[in-house]
Amino acid sequence: MLSNSHKPKVLFLHYHDAPYRTPVLNLVKADPRLESFQLAVMFAEDKGHSYWKIDYGSKQDINLGKADHKAGRQWHPAIRQLIKSNEYDCFVINGFYHYTSLYLLWVAFVKRVPAIFISDNVTIPEWGFLKRGYER
């Protein structure tokens, strides 16, 4: 429950500035009960969905910049400084595939910061065993 005595500061870690989420993010950002709602993106643009033809404008507040590639996953070192220099009351974390997302989940656990985990429906071929197990 949000109260007027403490306005929470929320960080939403997302893969990219997803235009289909912009209307909802606009509503959340405008909520006067929040001190701030920051959208941090791991990738400056979404090259995989150029066919969407949706343009609500960019809503990203923080671009985590250059990533290190390790085993096909991304690590954005800038997330450490972002967390160190801000006291967030809640994290919204999209996905768990990239090391940056896993790091933020770890920070939430260690610092006891509430985290909301969301995930898009993404097919990852090497995880087919999960699907096969689910179908049985």
Describe the structure.
The chain is an alpha/beta fold and 136 residues long. Helix content is 26%, strand content 21%. It has 4 helices and 7 strands; from the N terminus they run E-H-E-E-E-E-H-E-H-E-H. The strands form 2 sheets. A 5-stranded parallel sheet has the order 3-2-1-6-7, covered by helices on one side. Helix 3 links the parallel strand 6 and strand 7. The longest helix is centred in the last third of the chain and has 13 residues. The chain is globular, with a radius of gyration of 16 Å. The protein starts with 8 loop residues before the first strand and ends with a helix. The model has no long low-confidence stretch (mean pLDDT 76).
Which band does the percent of strand residues land in? 15-25%
Overall form? globular
Query: Could you tell me the radius of gyration in angstroms?
Result: 16 Å
Percentage of helical residues? 25-40%
Query: Can you give the mean pLDDT?
Result: 76
Question: How many β-strand stretches?
Answer: 7
Separation of the first and last Cα atoms: 40 Å
Give the strand line-up of the largest sheet: 3-2-1-6-7
Low-confidence stretches: none
Largest sheet: 5 strands, parallel
Alpha-beta content class: alpha/beta
Helices and strands, in order, run as EHEEEEHEHEH
- Number of helix segments? 4
